[in-house]
Specification:
Blueprint: H1 4-41, H2 63-71, H3 74-104, H4 111-120, H5 127-139, H6 147-169, H7 174-182, H8 187-198, H9 200-216, H10 219-224, H11 234-243, H12 248-277
Protein backbone atom coordinates (compact mmCIF):
# COMPACT_ATOMS: atom_id res chain seq x y z
CA UNK A 1 0.00 0.00 0.00
CA UNK A 2 1.42 3.38 -1.13
CA UNK A 3 1.54 6.06 1.55
CA UNK A 4 0.06 9.51 0.87
CA UNK A 5 3.47 11.14 1.21
CA UNK A 6 4.90 8.89 -1.52
CA UNK A 7 1.93 9.31 -3.84
CA UNK A 8 1.78 13.08 -3.57
CA UNK A 9 4.95 13.83 -5.65
CA UNK A 10 3.85 11.29 -8.27
CA UNK A 11 0.44 12.94 -8.54
CA UNK A 12 2.04 16.34 -8.90
CA UNK A 13 4.32 15.10 -11.65
CA UNK A 14 1.37 13.49 -13.45
CA UNK A 15 -0.69 16.68 -13.16
CA UNK A 16 2.23 18.74 -14.45
CA UNK A 17 2.67 16.36 -17.39
CA UNK A 18 -1.03 16.57 -18.27
CA UNK A 19 -0.95 20.36 -18.06
CA UNK A 20 2.13 20.48 -20.30
CA UNK A 21 0.47 18.17 -22.84
CA UNK A 22 -2.69 20.30 -22.85
CA UNK A 23 -0.76 23.55 -23.33
CA UNK A 24 1.31 21.94 -26.10
CA UNK A 25 -1.89 20.92 -27.86
CA UNK A 26 -3.32 24.43 -27.57
CA UNK A 27 -0.07 25.91 -28.90
CA UNK A 28 -0.13 23.49 -31.84
CA UNK A 29 -3.71 24.44 -32.68
CA UNK A 30 -2.72 28.11 -32.65
CA UNK A 31 0.44 27.67 -34.73
CA UNK A 32 -0.93 25.22 -37.29
CA UNK A 33 -2.98 27.79 -39.31
CA UNK A 34 0.14 29.94 -39.67
CA UNK A 35 2.19 27.00 -40.90
CA UNK A 36 -0.63 25.97 -43.24
CA UNK A 37 -0.86 29.43 -44.82
CA UNK A 38 2.93 29.67 -45.24
CA UNK A 39 3.09 26.17 -46.72
CA UNK A 40 0.44 27.00 -49.30
CA UNK A 41 2.10 30.33 -50.13
CA UNK A 42 5.25 28.66 -51.52
CA UNK A 43 3.48 26.09 -53.67
CA UNK A 44 2.00 26.18 -57.12
CA UNK A 45 -1.69 26.93 -57.22
CA UNK A 46 -2.36 23.60 -58.94
CA UNK A 47 -0.73 21.67 -56.09
CA UNK A 48 -2.93 23.06 -53.31
CA UNK A 49 -5.66 20.48 -53.70
CA UNK A 50 -3.58 17.38 -53.10
CA UNK A 51 -4.32 14.71 -50.50
CA UNK A 52 -1.70 15.98 -48.04
CA UNK A 53 -2.62 18.71 -45.60
CA UNK A 54 0.98 19.91 -45.17
CA UNK A 55 3.70 19.16 -47.70
CA UNK A 56 6.80 21.29 -48.08
CA UNK A 57 7.46 21.56 -51.84
CA UNK A 58 10.75 20.40 -53.29
CA UNK A 59 10.91 23.62 -55.32
CA UNK A 60 9.47 26.50 -53.23
CA UNK A 61 7.73 29.13 -55.31
CA UNK A 62 9.24 32.26 -53.75
CA UNK A 63 8.09 34.17 -56.80
CA UNK A 64 4.61 34.19 -55.28
CA UNK A 65 5.83 36.72 -52.73
CA UNK A 66 7.37 38.88 -55.44
CA UNK A 67 4.06 38.96 -57.32
CA UNK A 68 2.13 39.66 -54.12
CA UNK A 69 4.53 42.49 -53.19
CA UNK A 70 4.38 44.24 -56.57
CA UNK A 71 0.91 43.48 -57.95
CA UNK A 72 -0.78 43.93 -54.57
CA UNK A 73 0.67 47.44 -54.13
CA UNK A 74 1.88 46.34 -50.71
CA UNK A 75 4.57 49.07 -50.38
CA UNK A 76 1.95 51.80 -50.86
CA UNK A 77 -0.64 50.15 -48.62
CA UNK A 78 2.05 49.43 -46.03
CA UNK A 79 3.06 53.09 -45.88
CA UNK A 80 -0.57 54.15 -45.40
CA UNK A 81 -1.04 51.58 -42.64
CA UNK A 82 2.09 52.71 -40.82
CA UNK A 83 1.04 56.38 -40.94
CA UNK A 84 -2.54 55.74 -39.81
CA UNK A 85 -1.84 53.04 -37.24
CA UNK A 86 1.20 54.65 -35.62
CA UNK A 87 -0.56 58.04 -35.39
CA UNK A 88 -3.73 56.56 -33.87
CA UNK A 89 -1.70 54.40 -31.47
CA UNK A 90 0.34 57.32 -30.17
CA UNK A 91 -2.74 59.53 -29.78
CA UNK A 92 -4.82 56.84 -28.08
CA UNK A 93 -1.99 55.92 -25.70
CA UNK A 94 -1.36 59.51 -24.63
CA UNK A 95 -5.03 60.44 -24.21
CA UNK A 96 -5.95 57.26 -22.34
CA UNK A 97 -3.00 57.77 -19.97
CA UNK A 98 -4.22 61.26 -19.08
CA UNK A 99 -7.82 60.07 -18.73
CA UNK A 100 -6.81 57.19 -16.48
CA UNK A 101 -4.77 59.49 -14.24
CA UNK A 102 -7.66 61.92 -13.94
CA UNK A 103 -10.09 59.11 -13.06
CA UNK A 104 -7.71 57.41 -10.63
CA UNK A 105 -5.87 60.21 -8.85
CA UNK A 106 -7.89 63.41 -9.14
CA UNK A 107 -11.07 64.24 -7.23
CA UNK A 108 -13.78 66.09 -9.17
CA UNK A 109 -17.58 66.12 -9.25
CA UNK A 110 -18.23 64.33 -12.55
CA UNK A 111 -15.61 61.62 -12.10
CA UNK A 112 -18.18 58.84 -11.57
CA UNK A 113 -20.13 59.95 -14.64
CA UNK A 114 -16.96 60.11 -16.73
CA UNK A 115 -15.97 56.63 -15.61
CA UNK A 116 -19.41 55.34 -16.59
CA UNK A 117 -19.10 56.94 -20.04
CA UNK A 118 -15.67 55.39 -20.51
CA UNK A 119 -16.97 51.97 -19.50
CA UNK A 120 -20.01 52.26 -21.79
CA UNK A 121 -17.68 52.99 -24.68
CA UNK A 122 -16.60 49.35 -24.67
CA UNK A 123 -20.09 48.09 -25.55
CA UNK A 124 -20.80 50.40 -28.51
CA UNK A 125 -20.66 48.34 -31.75
CA UNK A 126 -18.59 49.74 -34.57
CA UNK A 127 -21.31 49.14 -37.15
CA UNK A 128 -23.76 51.45 -35.39
CA UNK A 129 -21.43 54.43 -35.81
CA UNK A 130 -20.44 54.00 -39.45
CA UNK A 131 -23.36 55.93 -40.99
CA UNK A 132 -23.47 58.81 -38.42
CA UNK A 133 -19.72 59.25 -38.59
CA UNK A 134 -19.81 59.14 -42.39
CA UNK A 135 -22.37 61.97 -42.41
CA UNK A 136 -20.42 64.08 -39.90
CA UNK A 137 -17.10 63.45 -41.63
CA UNK A 138 -18.69 64.53 -44.89
CA UNK A 139 -19.63 67.87 -43.34
CA UNK A 140 -16.07 68.48 -42.15
CA UNK A 141 -14.36 67.18 -45.29
CA UNK A 142 -12.80 64.16 -43.58
CA UNK A 143 -14.04 61.52 -46.00
CA UNK A 144 -11.21 59.94 -47.99
CA UNK A 145 -8.56 61.37 -45.66
CA UNK A 146 -6.21 59.66 -43.22
CA UNK A 147 -7.52 61.83 -40.39
CA UNK A 148 -11.02 60.49 -41.03
CA UNK A 149 -9.75 57.01 -40.14
CA UNK A 150 -7.42 58.04 -37.31
CA UNK A 151 -10.22 59.76 -35.33
CA UNK A 152 -12.51 56.68 -35.02
CA UNK A 153 -9.49 54.45 -34.41
CA UNK A 154 -8.57 56.58 -31.42
CA UNK A 155 -12.15 56.83 -30.18
CA UNK A 156 -12.83 53.10 -30.24
CA UNK A 157 -9.67 52.19 -28.33
CA UNK A 158 -9.85 54.81 -25.58
CA UNK A 159 -12.18 52.87 -23.26
CA UNK A 160 -10.12 49.67 -23.10
CA UNK A 161 -6.83 51.55 -22.90
CA UNK A 162 -8.08 53.79 -20.09
CA UNK A 163 -9.20 50.82 -18.01
CA UNK A 164 -5.84 49.09 -18.50
CA UNK A 165 -4.03 52.23 -17.35
CA UNK A 166 -6.34 52.57 -14.36
CA UNK A 167 -5.46 49.07 -13.22
CA UNK A 168 -1.76 49.90 -13.44
CA UNK A 169 -2.03 53.30 -11.74
CA UNK A 170 -3.81 51.77 -8.74
CA UNK A 171 -0.64 49.81 -7.98
CA UNK A 172 1.52 52.97 -7.90
CA UNK A 173 1.70 54.55 -4.40
CA UNK A 174 0.61 58.23 -4.35
CA UNK A 175 3.59 59.00 -2.15
CA UNK A 176 5.81 58.90 -5.25
CA UNK A 177 3.90 61.79 -6.78
CA UNK A 178 3.77 63.69 -3.50
CA UNK A 179 7.54 63.45 -3.22
CA UNK A 180 7.90 64.85 -6.74
CA UNK A 181 5.67 67.79 -5.89
CA UNK A 182 7.66 68.48 -2.70
CA UNK A 183 10.84 68.55 -4.80
CA UNK A 184 9.26 71.23 -6.99
CA UNK A 185 8.18 69.19 -10.01
CA UNK A 186 5.34 70.52 -12.15
CA UNK A 187 2.37 68.42 -13.28
CA UNK A 188 3.82 67.62 -16.74
CA UNK A 189 7.23 66.88 -15.23
CA UNK A 190 5.74 64.62 -12.56
CA UNK A 191 3.62 62.69 -15.09
CA UNK A 192 6.49 62.24 -17.53
CA UNK A 193 9.32 61.51 -15.09
CA UNK A 194 7.54 59.67 -12.25
CA UNK A 195 4.21 58.15 -13.28
CA UNK A 196 4.93 57.27 -16.91
CA UNK A 197 8.03 55.12 -16.21
CA UNK A 198 6.20 53.20 -13.48
CA UNK A 199 3.26 52.62 -15.84
CA UNK A 200 5.50 51.18 -18.57
CA UNK A 201 3.87 47.68 -18.55
CA UNK A 202 0.45 49.23 -19.15
CA UNK A 203 1.89 51.50 -21.83
CA UNK A 204 3.34 48.55 -23.72
CA UNK A 205 0.07 46.63 -23.43
CA UNK A 206 -2.00 49.57 -24.62
CA UNK A 207 0.36 50.40 -27.48
CA UNK A 208 0.66 46.85 -28.77
CA UNK A 209 -3.04 45.99 -28.48
CA UNK A 210 -4.05 49.26 -30.14
CA UNK A 211 -1.54 48.69 -32.92
CA UNK A 212 -2.78 45.16 -33.58
CA UNK A 213 -6.46 46.11 -33.54
CA UNK A 214 -5.99 49.07 -35.87
CA UNK A 215 -3.60 47.20 -38.15
CA UNK A 216 -6.14 44.46 -38.88
CA UNK A 217 -9.19 46.75 -39.03
CA UNK A 218 -10.99 46.81 -42.38
CA UNK A 219 -14.61 47.98 -41.97
CA UNK A 220 -13.98 51.62 -41.06
CA UNK A 221 -11.08 51.96 -43.51
CA UNK A 222 -13.28 50.56 -46.28
CA UNK A 223 -16.08 52.99 -45.37
CA UNK A 224 -14.10 56.21 -45.03
CA UNK A 225 -11.41 55.64 -47.68
CA UNK A 226 -12.32 55.47 -51.37
CA UNK A 227 -9.02 56.40 -53.00
CA UNK A 228 -6.70 53.50 -53.73
CA UNK A 229 -3.70 55.66 -52.87
CA UNK A 230 -4.91 56.07 -49.26
CA UNK A 231 -6.06 52.55 -48.49
CA UNK A 232 -4.42 50.38 -45.86
CA UNK A 233 -2.71 47.01 -46.03
CA UNK A 234 -5.78 44.73 -45.53
CA UNK A 235 -7.04 46.02 -48.88
CA UNK A 236 -4.28 44.09 -50.62
CA UNK A 237 -5.91 40.80 -49.63
CA UNK A 238 -9.31 42.08 -50.75
CA UNK A 239 -7.83 43.19 -54.05
CA UNK A 240 -6.18 39.84 -54.68
CA UNK A 241 -9.44 37.98 -54.21
CA UNK A 242 -10.71 39.62 -57.37
CA UNK A 243 -7.51 40.00 -59.36
CA UNK A 244 -6.13 36.54 -58.62
CA UNK A 245 -9.31 34.62 -57.89
CA UNK A 246 -7.83 31.39 -59.27
CA UNK A 247 -4.21 31.92 -58.20
CA UNK A 248 -4.56 30.83 -54.59
CA UNK A 249 -0.85 30.56 -53.88
CA UNK A 250 -0.30 34.27 -54.53
CA UNK A 251 -3.28 35.06 -52.30
CA UNK A 252 -1.73 33.05 -49.48
CA UNK A 253 1.60 34.84 -50.01
CA UNK A 254 -0.22 38.16 -49.71
CA UNK A 255 -1.83 36.97 -46.45
CA UNK A 256 1.59 36.10 -45.02
CA UNK A 257 3.00 39.52 -45.90
CA UNK A 258 0.04 41.30 -44.31
CA UNK A 259 0.15 39.19 -41.14
CA UNK A 260 3.92 39.28 -40.67
CA UNK A 261 4.35 42.76 -39.03
CA UNK A 262 1.80 42.22 -36.21
CA UNK A 263 3.12 38.70 -35.59
CA UNK A 264 6.67 39.98 -35.18
CA UNK A 265 5.48 42.80 -32.92
CA UNK A 266 3.46 40.46 -30.73
CA UNK A 267 6.32 37.95 -30.50
CA UNK A 268 8.76 40.53 -29.11
CA UNK A 269 6.24 42.25 -26.79
CA UNK A 270 4.15 39.37 -25.43
CA UNK A 271 5.69 39.59 -21.94
CA UNK A 272 4.77 43.27 -21.70
CA UNK A 273 1.22 42.53 -22.79
CA UNK A 274 0.79 39.97 -20.02
CA UNK A 275 2.39 42.26 -17.43
CA UNK A 276 0.10 45.14 -18.31
CA UNK A 277 -3.03 43.02 -18.64
CA UNK A 278 -2.58 41.61 -15.12
CA UNK A 279 -1.71 44.96 -13.53
CA UNK A 280 -4.09 45.72 -10.69
CA UNK A 281 -5.44 42.15 -10.55
CA UNK A 282 -4.25 41.70 -6.96
CA UNK A 283 -4.76 45.19 -5.69
CA UNK A 284 -8.25 46.36 -6.60
Amino acid sequence: MVSPTAASPALRRAAKALLFAFLALVALLQIFPLLWVFDYSIQKSGDLFGPQLLSFPSLPQWGNYVRAWTDGRIPRYLLNSVIIVVSSTLASTAISFCMAYALTRLTWKLRALALGVVTMGMVVPIHTTLLPNFIWFGYFGLINTRLGVIIPYVAFTLSFNTLVYMGQLKTIPPSMEESAFIDGASWPRMLWSVVAPMAKPATMTVAVMTFLNNWNEFIMANTYLSSDDLRTLPFSIFKFQGQYSSDYAVQFACMVLVALPPLVLYFFSSKWIMAGATAGAIKG
